[in-house]
Amino acid sequence: MAASLWRVAWGNPSGVLQSLAKNRVQPVSWIRQKFTRSRIPEWVFQPRPGDHEKYGGDPEQPHKFHLITRIRSGRRRPYWEKDMIERLGLEKRLDPVVHKNIPSVNAKLKVIKHLVSIKPLKLPHGIPTEEEMSDCYLNSHGELIIRRRLQPVEQKTIDSS
Predict the structure, then answer these.
(1) What distance in Å separates the CA atoms of residue 66 and residue 157, rounded to the nearest whole number?
(2) Taking CA atoms, which of 105, 121, 145, 153 is between 20 and 30 Å from 36?
């Protein structure tokens, strides 16, 4: 009995945790279900009917791009949330990243929605072309602004006759 109490108090070298119940030692396996995906309720991932009114979205005309910013740390989070943060390129906090508004990206964002801020990317000048990409910048309101380079104005000749 003393040897079994010693194993309980100081740990078993084989790695199996043991507990003392009714004067005998029984193996207890490590409970991992606390941090598995199956413990997250399914309703968390379902869309709510009031979301469009609350956030000002239009379900008939959705925006084309998301502007995603990580606002909370990934430390002390489960491994699948850390993987999603890395896959979406959100390693740096408060560094905005642009992603398409497609179902595969939206499914990934639902997993980490409590860690990120998601805004629609506004395109007041439309989608930039390859030549305009170097002249674009993202302002603090989530708008992609294209600085148009001024072209020289052709002067008209004036006939004074």
Answers:
(1) 49
(2) 105
Cα distance between residue 136 and residue 145, in whole Å: 6
From residue 128, alpha-carbon distances to 1, 147, 149 in Å are 77, 10, 13
Q: What is the pLDDT of residues 65-112, one digit of tens each?
A: 999 999 999 999 999 999 999 999 999 999 999 999 998 999 899 899
DSSP strand pairing (65-70 vs 116-120): antiparallel
Q: SS3 of 95, please?
A: coil
Higher pLDDT, 122 or 25: 122
DSSP string, 26-52: EEE----GGGSGGGS-GGGGSPPTTHH
- The tens digit of pLDDT for each residue in 26-76 reads 554 555 555 555 666 777 767 777 766 666 667 778 888 999 999 999 999
Six token digits for residue 17 = 């945790």
